């Protein structure tokens, strides 16, 4: 993005001089064009963008702690907020403070960066045919997501434009959907500010953290076995309603193995219904609580089923060394 594409060419030239990466560059460009108002060629598009995207960037820390206490997405949301703050502070110290006439603080500040990054997280698309380049695609980014379609935006070299082809026929007046990607409900809430209805997202999953117990008599031996394969005492595995990775079972086997099976550790470790389309009509607190309830309900559904099956598997493992060894013989084949 060269300086001549900016309503303020000086701003583009300065950021290019400092080799600012794509994401903060686009965020700054969006703020700059929004401040230019009618003189920006993107005026109509920017005026149609939400002033407060419903991503988790806009949840307060108290709201994240209270409503998403039991979800792994809470920590990811905190990390994302921290990253945005860190990015802004870096730009402010390295660039904005040195060029206050080009980047005045009343325009380029933490609030405007929260807004611009909220727009990028919820609307930026990757274009596969352009080696995964990221871009904002005016108007096309207003298409809603459906878990039932696989249509996505991409750059078409012949027409030199961004296009998409629907994977089914639509009737006149019917809403056309695209896919935002195979994302879990938590990831959709994190970036886009909505949660699909329970049971409608085949890509939904919960990240389950597992850890070795330090009270385990073979803790050191098990830890060494994990480290040999690039793993640590704590691992995180995705669990879906349809099952979980075999690596999780191998890790679980190692975690519950009896001390008498310590010689096998090296082999065991291996390589192991709220309408959110009109959020302005909703009370903010009710809206956020409902989103949190929807997310936690879907994650609890996955975990309850996984817990039931996993408990049965682990009970079988603990019932005797011979039975555990038979299970191990099957599991270790995945690491060959």
Automatic annotation (TrEMBL):
Keyword line: Methyltransferase, S-adenosyl-L-methionine, Transferase
SUPFAM superfamilies: RuBisCo LSMT C-terminal, substrate-binding domain, SET domain
Species for this entry: Gossypium mustelinum (Cotton)
InterPro entries: Rubisco_LSMT_subst-bd, Rubisco_LSMT_subst-bd_sf, SET_dom, SET_dom_sf, SET_RBCMT, SETD3_SETD6_MTase
GO MF terms held by the record: protein-lysine N-methyltransferase activity
Pfam families membership: Rubis-subs-bind, SET
Entry keyword annotation includes Cell membrane: no
Residue ranges constituting the SET domain according to the UniProt record: 71-181
Descriptive protein name: SET domain-containing protein
A GO BP annotation: methylation
Domain of life the protein comes from: Eukaryota
């Amino acid at each position: 993005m060269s300086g001549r594409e900016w309503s303020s060419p000086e701003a583009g030239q300065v950021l290019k001089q400092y080799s600012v990466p794509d994401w903060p560059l686009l965020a700054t460009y969006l703020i700059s064009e929004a401040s230019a108002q009618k003189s920006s060629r993107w005026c109509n598009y920017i005026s149609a963008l939400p002033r407060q995207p419903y991503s988790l960037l806009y949840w307060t820390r108290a709201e994240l702690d209270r409503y998403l206490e039991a979800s792994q997405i809470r920590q990811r949301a905190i990390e994302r907020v921290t990253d945005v703050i860190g990015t802004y502070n870096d730009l402010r110290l390295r660039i904005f403070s040195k060029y206050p006439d080009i980047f005045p603080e009343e325009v380029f500040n933490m609030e405007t960066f929260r807004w611009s990054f909220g727009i990028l997280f919820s609307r930026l698309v990757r274009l596969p045919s352009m080696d995964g380049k990221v871009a904002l695609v005016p108007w096309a980014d207003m298409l809603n997501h459906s878990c039932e379609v696989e249509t996505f935006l991409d750059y078409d070299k012949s027409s030199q434009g961004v296009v998409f082809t629907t994977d089914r026929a639509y009737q006149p007046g019917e809403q056309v959907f695209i896919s935002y990607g195979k994302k879990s409900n938590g990831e959709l809430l994190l970036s886009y500010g909505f949660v699909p209805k329970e049971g409608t997202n085949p890509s939904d999953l919960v990240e389950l953290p597992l850890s070795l117990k330090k009270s385990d008599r073979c803790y050191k031996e098990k830890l060494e076995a994990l480290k040999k394969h690039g793993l640590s005492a704590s691992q995180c595995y995705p669990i879906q309603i349809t099952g979980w990775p075999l690596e999780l079972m191998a890790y679980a086997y190692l975690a519950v193995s009896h001390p008498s099976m310590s010689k096998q550790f090296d082999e065991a470790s291996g390589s192991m219904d709220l309408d959110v389309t009109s959020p302005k009509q909703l009370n903010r607190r009710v809206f956020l609580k409902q989103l949190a309830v929807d997310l936690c309900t879907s994650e609890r559904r996955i975990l309850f089923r996984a817990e039931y099956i996993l408990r049965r598997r682990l009970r079988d493992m603990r019932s005797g060394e011979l039975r555990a060894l038979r299970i191990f013989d099957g599991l270790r084949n995945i690491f060959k």
